[in-house]
Amino acid sequence: MTILDKIVAHKKIEVAARKEILTVADLQSRPLFDKEPVSAKAWIGSPTKSGIIAEFKRQSPSKGLINGTAKVSDVAEGYFKAGASAMSVLTDQEFFGGTVDDLLAARSVSPVPIIRKDFIVDEYQIIEAKSIGADFILLIAACLTPKESKQYAAVARNLGMQVLLEVHNEEELNAHVDPCMDLIGVNNRNLKTFEVSIETSKALAEKIPNEFVKVSESGISNIENIKELKTYGYKGFLIGENFMKTENPAQAAIDFIGQL
Ligand SMILES: O=C(O)c1ccccc1NCC(=O)[C@H](O)[C@H](O)COP(=O)(O)O
User: Fold this and answer.
1) Which residues are in the Indole-3-glycerol phosphate synthase domain (predicted)?
2) What ranges in 22-145 are assigned the alpha helix state H?
């Protein structure tokens, strides 16, 4: 069983339990449910913005504990002031130590588009994402059938949210891509071996249709990576560990984005 299989199996049980506590109607009655989402495509694709999607991530299956002390609201405010084009908040508790409250805390201090970074396996999580103020969601091709990806993308679009489809290879891209999606992310992390290589982004760049904003995800640790990926048409750069492993992730983002 791969780590992704374990995460998905756990997620299905977790979502079933969450549904027992809060119904869809409960989610729809939350005040943030009616908030107009901010366009991630516009912010990340803008030539006048950094393109950095700065992530709040306490721990991960590949690295264990990354940062056990950073306060999400301080980091979110700092990422915004640093000039991040978007923020990613891990809301998975079991494997990443995140919560939906983290996203709510980030939302309360930051106007940038925020992605609910989780393993979406049920429409309920998309409605929940809207109810906590997320602007866009992640759909991971490796966790879903093409039918599910397309169906979930349509649900998000109907709610006014945008979709970042994450792929690892050309087969996933071709099978899952859909007009209801907005951004395509290439994950540089092999989820079986945890090895990271930006060569994955470079190899897939020309296969991604131009109507989607291209995002390179994982293992980005220096400005040279960004400069190189930009020549392949990437506009978005998802960075987690490089900021979160420091004592002050916001300052790390300020220093990094300041060099762009
Ligand atoms: O990060 C992991 O170990 C991981 C394991 C299994 C599934 C997903 C995983 N990461 C999620 C992410 O997408 C990354 O947090 C994100 O791309 C940022 O990566 P990095 O800059 O390398 O922290």
Assistant:
1) 4-252
2) 24-28, 40-45, 72-82, 100-109, 123-131
Give the DSSP H/E element, type plus range, for residue 243: helix 241-244
Element (DSSP H or E) covering residue 225? helix 223-231
- The continuous run of DSSP H or E covering 157 comes out as helix 146-158
Residue whose Cα lies nearest atom 19 of ligand 1: it is: 218
Write down the domain spans for the chain: 3-258
Q: Which residue's CA is the nearest one to ligand 1's atom 14? A: 218
* CATH number for the domain whose boundaries are 3-258: 3.20.20.70
Instruction: Establish whether residue 182 lines the binding site of ligand 1, counting it when its CB lies within 6 angstroms of any ligand atom.
Output: no
List the beta strands (DSSP E) in the chain: 52-56, 59-60, 64-65, 86-90, 114-117, 136-140, 162-167, 183-187, 213-217, 236-239
Q: Say how far apart CA 69 and CA 246 lie, in whole Å.
A: 11
Beta carbon of 130 within 6 Å of any ligand 1 atom: no
Q: Would you say the pTM of this structure is higher than 0.90?
A: yes
Looking at residue 37, what DSSP letter applies?
Answer: P
SS3 121: coil
